[in-house]
Amino acid sequence: MHVHPLIAVENIERSLAWYGRLLGCESHHGDSACAQLRLPGTKTTLLQLQLWNGLDHPGLEASFAGPGHGVLLWFEVEDFDDALDRAREMDAWIVREPAISAHTRRRECWLRDPDGYHVVLADSAGERD
């Protein structure tokens, strides 16, 4: 089984650049209405992007609900410190500074993407001092 999460965005190019830089992913551009981000050197899709109202998918009409309502994009990364550095270099909106989660015992940093989605970077290495 493969999971291909899809989020609706206002600007495909902007979102491709933002997620590509933050996560070190490669862009696999579909067309002006949709695109994919893949793990480097693979055909594994990490995230799909679609313009609001870009395709005929139920629930992705711009009038349906605000972006990010009820959605958390959670990325467990092996390069947590590097990903955090990239987020800071991008002037990403940091909602919650890096801290060890009481639930997972891993470092997490909470961000907002350009479309308002919450993005969580979680350290795959576990608890750190």
TrEMBL record:
Record Gene3D superfamilies: 2,3-Dihydroxybiphenyl 1,2-Dioxygenase, domain 1
MF terms (GO), sorted A to Z: dioxygenase activity; lyase activity
Keywords recorded for this protein, A-Z: Dioxygenase, Lyase, Oxidoreductase
Recorded coiled-coil stretches: none
Domain VOC: 1-124
PROSITE patterns associated with the record: VOC
Entry's transmembrane regions: none
One Pfam family in the UniProt entry: Glyoxalase
Protein name: Catechol 2,3-dioxygenase-like lactoylglutathione lyase family enzyme
Organism whose genome encodes this protein: Halomonas organivorans
